[in-house]
């Protein structure tokens, strides 16, 4: 494991889930072609606690959002990640992740 620390919001798995849902591209066809290092930690926020914002960029279809969250979760499970589920308001989520990261590193 490298000493390098990188934090990403979503990631390769999220993009794969989006492509599979929106374009029908199966992740199995893509993931093996990527030179992707697995993440050491994966935090998964409860998307239903994060308000939908109609800003012209984010999706506002709650059913599609549920499908995408489930697809991301399934890809993470398929790729054998240990998922750390995070709930609460933004401060509670940040505090939990900070605590966990400090414990991990």
What oligomeric arrangement do these chains adopt? Answer: single chain
Task: Give me the secondary-structure category.
Answer: mainly alpha
Approximately how much beta-strand content do the residues carry?
5-15%
Radius of gyration: 15 Å
Estimate percent helicity.
40-55%
Shape, per Cα inertia axes: globular
Query: Residue ranges: pLDDT <50 for 5 or more in a row?
Result: none
The biggest sheet amounts to: 2 strands, parallel
Describe the strand arrangement of the main beta sheet, using strand numbers: 1-2
Work out the helix count. Answer: 4
Average pLDDT confidence is 84
End-to-end separation: 12 Å
* Count of extended strands: 2
String of helices and strands: HHEHEH
Describe the structure.
It contains four helices and two strands, in the order H-H-E-H-E-H. The longest helix has 17 residues, at 62-78. The termini are close together. The protein has a two-stranded parallel ribbon with strand order 1-2. The radius of gyration is 15 Å and the shape is globular. The protein is mainly alpha-helical and 105 residues long. The protein has helices at residues 12-23, 27-31, 62-78, 90-104; strands spanning 42-45, 83-86. Strand 1, helix 3 (62-78) and strand 2 (83-86) form a beta-alpha-beta unit. The model has no long low-confidence stretch (mean pLDDT 84).
Core attributes:
single chain, 105 residues, mainly alpha, two-stranded parallel sheet, 4 helices, 2 strands, 8% strand
Which helices and strands appear, and what pairs or packs with what?
Elements: H1 12-23, H2 27-31, E1 42-45, H3 62-78, E2 83-86, H4 90-104
Parallel strand pairs: 1-2
Helix pairs in contact: 1-3
């Amino acid at each position: 494991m490298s000493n390098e620390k990188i934090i990403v919001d979503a990631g390769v798995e999220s993009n794969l889930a989006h492509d599979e849902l929106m374009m029908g591209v199966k992740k199995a066809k893509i993931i093996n072609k990527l030179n992707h290092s697995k993440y050491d930690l994966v935090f998964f926020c409860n998307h239903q606690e994060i308000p939908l914002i109609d800003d012209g960029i984010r999706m506002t279809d709650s059913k599609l959002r549920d499908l995408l969250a489930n697809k991301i979760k399934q890809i993470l499970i398929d790729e054998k990640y240990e998922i750390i589920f995070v709930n609460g308001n933004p401060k509670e989520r940040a505090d939990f992740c900070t605590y966990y990261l400090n414990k991990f590193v």
